[in-house]
Amino acid sequence: MLTVKAYAAPSATEPLIPTTIERRDVGPKDVLIAIRYAGICHSDIHTVRGDWGPIAYPQVVGHEIVGEVVEIGSEVTKHQVGDRVGVGCMVNSCRECENCRAGMEQYCLNGNTGTYTSVDRDGTITQGGYSTHIVVDEDFVLRVPEAIPYEAAAPLLCAGITTYSPLAHWNAGPGKRVAVVGMGGLGHMAVKIAVSMGTEVTVLSRRLAKKDDGLAFGAKDYFATDDDATFDTLANSFDLIINTVSAPLNLDRYLTLLRLDGTMVNVGAPAQPLPITIFTLFGNRRSFAGSGIGSIAETQEMLDFCAEHGIAPETELISADQINDAYERVLSSDVRYRFVIDTGTL
Ligand code: NAP
Ligand code: ZN
Ligand code: ZN
């Protein structure tokens, strides 16, 4: 066992605090990673605050992890000591079910093993990336291309893949009109990735405060959803809407923005059930869908795509003692556009 420094939530209502946790010994197929940077995803906040249901405390979160391989198990073939690597939202899956065999282990029918709050193969609860080291099965470790700086790579491991996957699956590309709802961590990556895929992108943010940024990321248009006229102006316009909003929205209003055969994909994850008027779906033969992270192969494809197209998230580097302030800033949408923890400060 390796005792390592970490930042943990002691309960749903208290601030995160410095602590130590145990990492398992490096098994034959394991890689020990010295974590350099860890991004703060809104899912980390939903999780520790109990938005999605009760969890066991203390809990270390963080699933946007990058660092360096410092030790490998005897049977590891994919990674070497010194490699720049990343870990995203999952660290294992059953590998036997229909979905795992189809290479979509994020949809493992037995439940993928999440990077945090999941029961690991040794029966312990997985602990995430706000930590100095992590031990992960080599099959769930990604290669970080040299062209992507470490700090910028971290948010790609969740915000990047979670937006890349539905954009790729629903064929974003030339000739398609895509809207991105909410321009936070996921939203700003969705804009950059969709633009690089050759798509015409419109941002739908509550206000126009971040309009200059959205246009700088390559969006063609930027509208405020606090302005009711936006929904008249843009009715029947989009082939694909990626909704990244962390809170409940009036889905019907957004669905009316889809043109014939258009699809709205929710990646935002509010816990509450949200109503949809079925007749809104009849019009224009609209679809409403969800999408969860992406597979390991697709995550590697996304990292290589970002390296090739020079795509990097906008990050604000923080030290460990700023994590609780950063949470408050994420909750008040005062993030431009992803906080990344320098784990050297743990
Ligand atoms: P974030 O940085 O906080 O961005 C969320 C954005 O939503 C905000 O920037 C804001 O955009 C908008 N927003 C927030 N509150 C709102 C409200 N009350 N009404 C309307 N708009 C609001 O969060 P994130 O890290 O990008 O994560 C976004 C969501 O995706 C979270 O729910 C997270 O758990 C989920 N998620 C899902 C997956 C998956 O696999 N599906 C993976 C990762 C994250 P504007 O300021 O532009 O209005
Ligand atoms: Zn995430
Ligand atoms: Zn499976």
Could you explain how this protein is built, in words?
The structure is a single chain. The protein is of the alpha/beta class and 346 residues long. The chain folds into 2 domains: 2-157 and 314-345, Alpha-Beta Complex (Quinone Oxidoreductase, Chain A, domain 1), CATH 3.90.180; 160-290, 3-Layer(aba) Sandwich (Rossmann fold). Helix content is 24%, strand content 26%. It is built from 11 helices and 17 strands. Strand 11 (200-205), helix 6 and strand 12 (221-224) form a beta-alpha-beta unit. Helix 4 (159-169) packs across helix 10 (296-309). The chain is globular, with a radius of gyration of 20 Å. It starts with a strand and ends with a strand. The model has no long low-confidence stretch (mean pLDDT 98). Bound molecules: NADP nicotinamide-adenine-dinucleotide phosphate and zinc ion (ZN) (2 copies). Residues 41, 43, 63, 89, 158 line the site of one zinc ion.
Percent strand? 25-35%
Radius of gyration: 20 Å
CATH superfamily of the largest domain: Medium-chain alcohol dehydrogenases, catalytic domain
Number of strands: 17
SS summary, helix count:
11
Low-pLDDT residue spans: none
Give the names of the bound compounds. NADP nicotinamide-adenine-dinucleotide phosphate, zinc ion
CATH architecture grouping of the largest domain? Alpha-Beta Complex
pLDDT averaged over residues: 98
Q: Provide the CATH topology of the largest domain.
A: Quinone Oxidoreductase, Chain A, domain 1
Overall tally of structural domains: 2
Shape: globular
Q: Give the proportion of residues in helices.
A: 10-25%
CATH class of the largest domain: Alpha Beta
| N-to-C order of helices and strands | EEEHEEEHEEEHHEHEHEHEHEHEHEHE
How many strands, what sense, and barrel or not for the largest sheet? 7 strands, mixed
